[in-house]
Amino acid sequence: MTEDILQAPTAATSTDGPATSRVTAEARRRRTFAVISHPDAGKSTLTEALVLHANVITEAGAIHGKAGRRATVSDWMEMEKARGISITSTALQFPYRAPSGQDCVINLLDTPGHADFSEDTYRVLTAVDCAVMLIDAAKGLEPQTLKLFEVCRLRRIPIITVINKWDRPGRDPLELIDEIQSRIGLRPTPLTWPVGIAGDFKGVLDRRTGNFIRFTRTAGGAKAAPEEHITPDRAHAAAGDDWDNAVEESELLSADGSDYDQDTFLGCETTPLLFTSAALNFGVNQLLDVLVQLAPAPHGQLDTEGHRRPAESPFSAFVFKVQAGMDSAHRDRIAYARVCSGTFERGEVLTHATTGKPFVTKYAQSVFGQQRSTLDTAWPGDVIGLANANVLRPGDTLYRDVPVQYPPIPSFSPEHFAVARGTDPSKHKQFRKGIEQLEQEGVVQVLRSDRRGDQAPVFAAVGPMQFEVASHRMAAEMSAPISLESLPYTVARAASPEDVDFLSRQPSVEVFTRTDGVILVLFSTKWRLEGFQRDNPNVVLQSLVAAGDD
Ligand code: G4P
Question: Which of 10, 64, 324, 520 has its CA 20 to 30 A from that of 193?
Fold first, then answer.
């Protein structure tokens, strides 16, 4: 499955030669990825550092108002947090010229953080070719990272691991490597190894060249950190015992078979690993280079039949997220689509695969932080924002000329449940219609049972923020205000129809049918679920994250 990823595609469905080679060239220079991490691991800081190193900005901004740093590009993240989800940006695109002279385009897709963790966070991962798993050196793997990692694993997204905050006291690097391998079964193959323990970050051993890359701090970490590349014969003189330790540990890693291998990286068995201090801008250049040199370029997408539509085929894209304006003054709705093949030209009429109807792309936008500008052209790997696209839903396909249908985006396992009731009985019709719409847009999953009846559907969500959005939109947009009553469940599993009667008789368990027909059984806790499974080994319950996955 990996061999076609990095190689130049040979066959193209399009007949126009020069245009095809332009698409190939544009696709090959793109890297579309997301950072997966637990809140506070340093995602915003790293994002900003990447942009700084790509020379898009000249000085890192004060995400948290750090003295000596000026507010710049990342302020949008802070504002998003302050203003909630109304202006959530989705993709940050910037050009990057690699030291090799290669001109690249980096598309960094945002996976919203803690407060607004939602199904959208997972959906974004359906639109990337690679993920950077960012880990705090003192904390190791944390719950949200694990959840997001699980989605990457299911979708076979190659992962680059970054151990951040090495400038602070943290854990032993070999111990962190062991933790990754033993807990998630992904073998780290470090590309750099720290010189100096956590808290005393002098530089890294570049395991591919053998050189010592020495970093120098800049005031407040506002500028890219100067780096010197010191050959191994001079490295001991430069870093003493710290260098010798790094060399020794690197040799241990080699002896253990933990050297980088492209095939197993793309096959999701190994993960190249780097050490950084995003706050000091240490190791950020190395990450950019790894993205450019090793991460997969867009290589076409599998359709519902399992055939790959090559990147140079006529235009196609799939919608991975629909964002409705929370601000009642701006009831716009932006559908974000990832280009899978061909060239996007604004104004062109595409086909909406679900309905077969034409779709006009007059209102296409690109997003850089807070700035939105009209987008005229896009290539495979890029994200286009389609404004006023009321017919588009997550998972929908758009194409030109040659029809294609990409697989639906799976529904992810909800962990929050609440009964929704209309507070104004005269708005019964709006209530029903509103809920249907929110469900179709993927704002919440909707569950029903005979026991609770149609008047009291249950909303299910990955994050509680989805309830806030649903509640707000029901009142503001659908004129059908609702009240939500939380239910004491945290785990959902899919069950077969023949077990419904038995399951319905169990204490502290509730059975529902989701709108897509899947039967969901809800348990109060993971332990309760495990106890049930121990006592009833014949009842087959399936985990949901992979539901509908390709
Ligand atoms: P997030 O987006 O993943 O939630 O994390 P964010 O970048 O906001 O960083 C969380 C905290 O960790 C911030 O500190 C940030 O400065 C700090 N941080 C990020 N990367 C590094 C690093 O490499 N080294 C060190 N030492 N700290 C790092 P804060 O206390 O919230 O704010 P402040 O320190 O900016 O005042």
Answer: 64
The answer to whether 114 is a known ligand-binding residue is yes
Residues 36 and 151 in one domain: yes
Per-residue pLDDT for 347 more than 50?
yes
- Residue 216 DSSP symbol: -
Å from CA of 165 to ligand 1 middle: 8
113 labelled ligand-binding: yes
Residue 406 forms part of a structural domain: no
Q: How far is CA 91 from CA 32, 200, 319, in A?
A: 9, 34, 13
DSSP 225-268: PPEEEE-HHHHHHHHTHHHHHHHHHHHHHHHTT-S--HHHHHTT
Between 206 and 477, the more confident residue is 206
307 and 210 together in one domain? no
Per-residue pLDDT for 500 more than 90?
A: yes
Shared-domain flag, residues 149 and 237 = yes
The pLDDT score that the predictor gives to residue 366 is: 65
**157 C-alpha vs ligand 1 centroid, how far in Å?**
26
Condensed to tens digits (0 to 9), the pLDDT of residues 104-124 reads 999 998 877 665 678 888 899
Residue 199 alpha carbon to ligand 1 centre in Å: 15
Decide which of 422 and 442 is more confident: 422
- Which of 45, 80, 142, 217 gets mutated to test ligand 1 (max ligand atoms within 8 A of its CB)? 45
The number of distinct structural domains making up the chain is 3
Domain boundary among 368, 399, 430: 399
Determine the Cα–Cα distance for residues 339 and 30; give it in Å rounded to an integer.
Answer: 11
347 in a labelled binding site: no
Last residue within a domain, chosen from 366, 399, 432: 399
538 and 496 Cβ atoms separated by less than 8 Å: no
Name which residue sits closest to atom 10 of ligand 1, judged by CA: 40
Q: What is the CATH number of the domain that holds 194?
A: 3.40.50.300
- pLDDT, one tens digit per residue, over 325-345 is 544 555 667 889 999 999 999
The boundaries of the domain holding residue 334 are: 302-399
